[in-house]
Design brief:
Elements: E1 2-15, E2 18-23, E3 26-32, H1 39-51, E4 55-56, E5 62-64, E6 72-77, H2 99-117, E7 121-122, E8 129-144
Parallel strand pairs: 3-6, 6-7
Antiparallel strand pairs: 1-2, 1-3, 1-8, 4-5
């Protein structure tokens, strides 16, 4: 599983001109599912995500979580995080999970975030999405399950 986590002032995702998810202050999470990923991995990532202290406290130190600042989370599926560009010029996506696994774990991830946060905004799995954001910092973190 790969996540790109961006601290944002605002973010939204559109599908065919319709906004499917929109947040103000919070986290934009791009989520890629790998062939070996499991629900147990999702549980670990979500628990850590909602407690990740990357928002500034009153002294300007990154000491608060998205929960602490009453922020929001927007989750967008992105299998292209599994692009392998080692050979040639055309990326290979053989490390990405199947569409069925990807959708199952994406939905499960969103469900678990909703349990923790009370709400989650989402993109549309498998759709051509237009994502826009105002990155806060910028502050971007990449998580890769192969490193855990």
């Amino acid at each position: 599983m790969k996540l790109v986590i961006q601290r944002v002032k605002e973010a939204k995702v559109e599908v065919e001109g319709n906004i499917t998810g929109s947040i103000n202050q919070g986290l934009l999470v791009l989520l890629g599912v790998g062939a070996e990923d499991t629900k147990e991995m999702v549980d670990i990532y979500v628990e850590k995500l909602v407690k990740l202290r990357i928002f500034a406290d009153e002294e300007g130190k990154t000491n608060l979580s998205v929960q602490d600042v009453n922020g929001q989370i927007l989750v967008v599926s992105q299998f292209t995080l599994y692009a392998d560009c080692k050979k040639g010029n055309r990326p290979s996506f053989t490390g990405a999970g199947s569409p069925e696994l990807g959708n199952t774990l994406y939905e499960y991830f969103c469900e678990k975030v909703k349990e923790k946060m009370g709400n989650v905004e989402v993109g549309e799995f498998g759709a051509d999405m237009k994502v826009s954001l105002i990155n806060d910092g910028p502050f971007t973190i990449v998580w890769d399950s192969r490193d855990w």
